[in-house]
Amino acid sequence: MYRDGPALPRRAQPCPAWHRSCQGANLSPAGAETSTAALGRPSSAPNTAPPAGNEAKPPNAPSSAGCRAWRRRWAAPGAAGAAAVRAGNPGVPPPPSPGRDRPHVPAPFSLLQDGETFTYRPARGLAVGDPHTAAAGWAFPFPGVLLLEDFLSRAEEAELVRAMDQDPWKPSQSGRRKQDYGPKVNFKKQKLRAGCFVGLPSFSQDIVKRMKAHPILEGFLPVEQCNLDYLPERGSAIDPHLDDWWLWGERLVSLNLLSKTVLSMSCDSENSIQLFNCKKVTVAVHLPRRSLVVLYGAARYKWKHAIHRKHIEHRRVCITFRELSTEFSLGGKHENLGKELLDIALSFQGKPV
Ligand SMILES: O=C(O)CCC(=O)C(=O)O
C-alpha cells in the first residue's frame, strides 16, 4: 500500500517560480520550512495517483503532484513512533503485514477512522492529528496553504464591508448571499464571455496590490472576485468542492472578514492519500478574522474545501479572488479572450454582475 502506489502523472509544464512547495519545502507564513529532519526521513514511496472521475487533475494545471515535495508521503510518528525512527525505521511505518513480525511499530492504521480530523499548523506547514483522537501524535506535510494573519486592520475591514454593503447581495445556495464580479461563464459547456462584467470593484484595488507583495502571489492577476456572506441564522455553509480548473488558475485567494471560521479540507479518494488506512482524511485550517488564505498546489487540486455550518458563529464575509488558468493566459489557446477579461477586471470600475 505504501510502496506500490500507481505511477505518477507526467508533469505538464515547469512549476512557476513562486511554487515553493516544489523545491522540497513547505512555505509557512513565518517562512519556516518543514524539513525532513522534523519528520523523520521521507518515504521513498511514489506519489499519489490522480483523483478519479471529475476530480481528475487538469492536464494543464500547474502540477504539484509532479513536484518532489508532494511525491513523497511522509508520516511523523508521535512519541511512540519516534523510537521507531531512532531505531532506523524509515519514517513511514510499513503497512500491517500478518506475515511479518514488527513488535516495535505501533499499529495506528486500523485505529484511524474515516474522516479523522487533523489540524493545519501554519508555522510548520503540517497537518497534525488532533489530541484525544486516534490521529494524535501523527502528522504529515500539508503543502499548498499560505495563511497571512492580520492582513487588514480593523478599520480597513469595517470600511471594506461598509463598501460591499452598499451593493445588493443576491441569495445563493446553502444560506449564503453573494456578489459576483466576473465574466459570464457556463462551466458545463465551457462557454465564456464578458457579458456585463465591467471590472473588479474599486475598493479591491489596494487589497490586490498588497497581496501581490507576497512571493506566493507574485504575478497574481485576479479576473474574478466573489463576495460571500454567511450568517448562522441562515444556516450558511458551503459544501466540500474543488474549484473549476478549466477557467480558474492555480491560486485561490480568500479574505476572511468579520469572524473567524474553519476551512475544512477533505481528501476522500483512496488513491490520493495513503498515509492512513482510511478513505477520508480531513484537515481543519483555522482562519482568523481578517486573515488572507491562499490555496495552491495540492491544497487547491487534491483537497476539497468547505465551510461547515457549525463553523459560522457570527456574520462572516469572504472575498475570493481567482486568476486565469494557463489556457487563458499568455501563450494559451484562449489568450486573447483572457487578455480582454483581464483588462476589464483590472480597470477596477466594477459593479456586481
Ligand atoms: O467561504 C469560503 O471561505 C470558501 C468559498 C469557496 O469555497 C468558494 O467560493 O468556492
UniProtKB/TrEMBL annotation:
Task: For this entry, list what GO says about its biological process.
Answer: actomyosin structure organization; cleavage furrow ingression; demethylation; positive regulation of gene expression, epigenetic
GO molecular-function annotation terms?
A: actin binding; broad specificity oxidative DNA demethylase activity
Region feature (Disordered): 1-107
Indicate, by first and last residue, each region the UniProt record lists as having compositional bias (Low complexity). Answer: 75-90
The cofactor required is: Fe(2+)
Q: Can you list the GO cellular component terms from the UniProt entry?
A: contractile ring; midbody
- Gene3D superfamilies xrefs: Alpha-ketoglutarate-dependent dioxygenase AlkB-like (2.60.120.590)
Protein name per UniProt: AlkB homolog 4, lysine demethylase
Source organism of the structure: Crocodylus porosus (Saltwater crocodile)
Gene name, per UniProt, is ALKBH4
